[in-house]
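Narrative progress, year one. The postdoctoral researcher (J.K.) led the effort to move from monomer predictions toward full complexes, under supervision of the PI. The following entry was the first complex the group processed end to end, covering 243 residues in total.
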Amino acid sequence: MSKQKILIIEDERALQEVLSYNLEREGFEVALASDGQDGLRRLRSFEPDLVLLDLMLPVIDGLEVCRQLRADTKTQGIRVIMLTARSEEVDEIVGFNMGADDYVTKPFKVKPLIHRIKALLRRTGTDRQNRDVISIHGIEIDRVNHTAKARGQLLDLTPTEFRLLWALSRSAGRPFGRNELMDHCRGEDANALERTIDVHVRSLRQKLRDLGDVIETVRGVGYRFRAENEPTPAVTESNEPAE
Ligand code: CA
């Protein structure tokens, strides 16, 4: 089995060394980058399974690196753990609105971080970027053939709806902001307004019929696809009806 790969994007030398030493000892293949621009370059060449991403970075900051990573179909499936210097910065990432899967506040202990890395890689072991078919809640989405089925019935989706469904379902459980969803849908209508995401989501829910409520509204954030093992919630006022 090939080693799992971790990219560390961090400008503090001492922290780079501590992290890479410990991660290599745990059997990971590690690459380093010291600023955001170099980090983005390494993301594409090294193709890591997970990125440890410092928030405050020279040239391009961590949030922008994360945004670009999520917007690129080649890198959007990579898991991201943010490293933040101050607890106030956490406010910016809370809700994982920025596309991070997890975060730790400096100073942190290495051992618990490694546990979180392993847990995240395990949880998403079948959710790698190379995956071409997602099957969840009776919905099957095939990225190669660009088809989606609900309970075996082919759905007639627009390209934007398809991209929305793909982006949400492949990271089921994670809330997405409207801006982030717009990045995922970009391609044919680059100047889509935030509100149009709501229109696409409403249409997508209608086409999913009784399964429409798997796409939940996250108040103040945007939307999320319900994770596989989550129970169906009682109808709450924050969830629009499916139809
Ligand atoms: Ca830094």
